[in-house]
Structures are given as C-alpha cells and as structure tokens.
Design a protein that fits this description.
Blueprint lengths: L36 H11 L12 E5 L2 E4 L4 E4 L2 H4 L8 H11 L14 H13 L6 E5 L2 H16 L3 E5 L8 H5 L4 H4 L9 E4 L14 E6 L13 H14 L2 E5 L14 H4 L5 E4 L10 E5 L1 H4 L18 H16 L3 H14 L5 E7 L2 E6 L2 H14 L1 E2 L1 E3 L2 E7 L7 H20 L2
Parallel strand pairs: 3-13, 5-6, 5-7, 7-8, 8-9
Antiparallel strand pairs: 1-2, 2-3, 4-10, 9-10, 11-12, 12-15, 14-15
The structure holds pyridoxal-5'-phosphate.
C-alpha cells in the first residue's frame, strides 16, 4: 500500500438532487466530457473515489521501464513498481506487442472456463512447467484478492471443513473473504461481521502452530509478509507449518501475490524455504501490467470446484485473454532473462548504499525490501522529500516507520544509483527538518 502523500484541494462532488428526495430519471445525457489538463485534477477530486483524504494526485503522462513521466514534465523513478506489479518495468516491449497481437485476435468471448483460449491455456501450461508437481492446474482471476477468495473457497470445498487459520499482520486483500484472513483488526473492524471461524496466530512462532487442528480447512500465509512490514520467517517455522498442515490434513495456501515471480530472488519465494504449498495464489506482477490473478493447485484438489453443484465458483472476466497474453510475454521475459537474479543485485546495492544514522534496519529479500527509520514522522517526511527529488516510495500497510523499496527488476544501474543518491539526500534533509 502507498500511504497518501499530497493534500488535495478539489471540492467534493455536489449532490445532484439536493434535499428533494426525488428519484431523478434522465431522458437525455450530456456527451461524455473529455477534461482538459487544467480541470483533470478537479475532475479527479469530484468524480473518482478516493481511498484516503490525501491521495498522491500526480498526473501520469506515460511510463517506461523504471520511470514515470508526469504531465508537468517531471520524471520520477518508480521504486515501488506500482506495488510489486511492474517487475519487468513499465510497458515492456514484449508485453506491449503481445497485447497488440491479442487485441487483433479477440477480446472477451465467454465466461471463464468454458472455451479453449490459446493465451489462457499456454499461460497455465507455462506456469505449471515452472512449478513442482501438485501445482499444475490454474484457475485464473482478475485480481489478487479474488485469487485468495478462490483459494479459501477451494480449501473448504476440498476438505469439507470450515475453519481457517491466518497470521497476525498478514494482508490478503480487501474483499470480505480475504479481509477475514487479514491480520490487522483495525482494517477488519469496520466491516465485521466477517467470515466466522478464523483464527489468527503469531507469525513465525513455532509453538503457536499446535493450534492448527483437524477441523482446519486451510492455513493461509505470505511466505514473506509484505504489508506486515517485510517480515521474513525462519526456515524452521516454514517447515513446521508444512508438517503441521500435513499432519492434520489442512491445506496450506501460500499467497505469493507480492513475493511471486522473481521479486525475492527466486521465481517463487517458497523455493527459498524448500516448502511446497497445496494451493498457491499469484497476481500483481503476473499480468505484466495487466490485471490478472490465479490460484493454482493439484488436479485432485481443483476438481472439487466442478460439481456439488457444478459452477460453484465462476467468474466472467477471470483470465481475460489480453491479460493472459501479456502475462505469458512477461513470464518469458522473466524466465529467459533470469530476472530473478537481478533481485539479488538490487538487494546488495541497496544494502550497500543505504547507510545513515536514521536507518534502524533494512530487511527483506531481493527486491522486496523495507527500510525502517527511527520514527513514523521521519518516515513520512523522508517519503515526501524523496518524491520532491523525483523518487517514488511508499509505506507498507501495517508498519508506519517502514519504507517499501521494490523497484522493477529491470532497473538499470545508473537509474538505481540515481534513486539511491536522491534517497540519501532526502534522508539528510528529512532528518534535518525534524
Ligand atoms: N495478497 C497480498 C500479499 C498482497 O500484497 C495484495 C495486495 O497488495 C493482495 C493479496 C491483494 O491483491 P489485489 O490488490 O490485486 O486484490
């Protein structure tokens, strides 16, 4: 998550039928307006729903590789990749040409799962080829939260159990099911009651895993917590988690929506722990910049969604052919370019360059890093100053003093160094203005 940074002055949208209580039925409509640059920000303020009172409000002109060009001509270095999405950079030529080619063939033709669509099938096969046995059937969605919804439902259907276990400070998405397993009460509370039967355990606590019993349908975790503050668990915890799930017959779901596809230094983060989940969820970087998610499991487990009743989990747009074509191209770029190896170089460079008294910790793996500063106030100032100098950074959702560092894996050496120089300058100025 990116915390809101820039205060906006736009007025709220006026009420259309103020006070009358009448239902207004229009018989004619004005043509759709095409706002000029001058009133675009104003229209953003009036007509686009905000997620906080202080959105960034930067007007985007274009984006290429690790840089975003703004409408006022400024160019900023993207050190968060649209939050772990643009792993192969913005508008990679291979992705752009795959999108064009697919647009010329067909767009949406039928709800998910009915027709044989080449990009979908090729992508499912490519993912399966990259994954261990038991992770060979893909169910495509549009987003990450939807992938997790599917995974949670699948675990209940396949096991016939209802209880779910998740971990404190996890983040799994904002729809009702995913929110139910998100480990921060402040985000759940306004929407309760949520899905009952969910237990939260402390993350990376081996003894706590004994609470997983034979009534549990699934245990869901990120292999490395992202929004929780870039927290890497111990290998021993991961192994005990896998063993405990196997002992009691609970399905282990790894949410690799943020960690997946090279970001942590291997194609999938679970490879580094040598632990294979029963269900894997992916999104974000999966679409190469297009919206796409999926949950992946074995044919045995996935079969449970076919009947009792048939069509018990469907989606219209999941696995959109244009998104799948983009994804396949992105996957080839990642795989053929061995881009996961660049994550290690990014980590080394960042750790080497980012030394300053205000830094308490730099943690994470590969290009999924968090830099913790001495206070949330300093962190807020630092992120502001960095943006003024042309570097886009952000917070994680559950950790106020942590700055997320997650550049595209394709970022060039000069651009990475330029970003780090600016970050050090921003650290200096933010510390001085305390
Ligand atoms: N799971 C994790 C680990 C995430 O980081 C996110 C998004 O930040 C999600 C799920 C939700 O994905 P989406 O925003 O595509 O619904």
């Amino acid at each position: 998550m990116l915390r809101a940074r820039v205060a906006k002055t736009a007025a709220p949208a006026p009420s259309k039928v103020a006070g009358s209580g009448a239902i207004l039925v229009r018989t004619t409509y004005r043509p759709v307006a095409h706002p000029t640059r001058d009133d675009l920000t104003d229209a953003f303020g009036r007509h686009v729903a905000w997620t906080s009172d202080h959105p960034l409000g930067l007007e985007v002109a274009s984006a290429l590789d690790a840089q975003i060009e703004l409408a006022d001509g400024r160019r900023i270095i993207d050190m968060i990749s649209g939050i772990a999405v643009s792993s192969i950079g913005h508008r990679h030529p291979a992705v752009v040409s795959a999108i064009h080619a697919q647009v010329d063939r067909h767009l949406h033709v039928m709800v998910y799962g009915e027709m044989v669509q080449r990009p979908q099938v090729e992508l499912a096969r490519a993912l399966s080829d990259l994954l261990p046995d038991g992770l060979d059937v893909c169910y495509f969605t549009m987003t990450g939260t939807e992938a997790n919804e599917g995974a949670l439902k699948l675990s209940r259907k396949a096991t016939g159990r209802t209880r779910m276990v998740a971990f404190e400070r996890s983040y799994h998405g904002d729809t009702m099911g995913s929110l139910s397993v998100t480990g921060r009460a402040v985000y759940r509370r306004p929407f309760e009651p949520l899905v009952p039967g969910t237990t939260f355990l402390p993350f990376n606590d081996v003894a706590a895993l004994d609470a997983i019993d034979d009534e549990v349908a699934c245990v869901i975790t990120e292999p490395i917590q992202g929004e929780g503050g870039i927290r890497v668990p111990d290998d021993a915890w991961m192994h005990r988690l896998r063993d405990r799930c196997t002992e009691v017959g609970a399905l282990l779901i790894f949410d690799e929506i943020q960690t997946g596809l090279g970001r942590t230094g291997s194609l999938f983060a679970f490879e580094q722990f040598d632990v294979v989940p029963d269900i894997l969820t992916l999104a974000k970087a999966l679409g190469g910049g297009m919206p796409l998610g999926c949950f992946i499991s074995s044919s045995d487990i996935m079969r449970s969604l076919r009947n009792d009743p048939p069509l018990s989990h469907v989606t219209t747009f999941g696995g959109h052919p244009v998104s799948c074509a983009a994804s396949l191209a992105a996957l080839r770029v990642l795989r053929d370019g061995q881009l996961h190896k660049r994550a290690a170089w990014i980590e080394e460079t960042v750790r080497d360059r980012l030394t300053h008294p205000a830094i308490v910790d730099v943690r994470g793996r590969g290009a999924m890093l968090g830099m913790e500063l001495t206070s949330p106030a300093l962190t807020a100032r630092f992120v502001d100053h960095a943006l003024e100098l042309g570097v886009l950074l952000g917070w994680t959702l559950h950790a106020d003093a942590l700055v997320r560092i997650a550049p595209p894996l394709t970022i060039s050496e000069p651009i990475l160094h330029s970003a780090l120089n600016k970050m050090i300058a921003a650290l200096e100025s933010a510390s001085r203005s305390a």
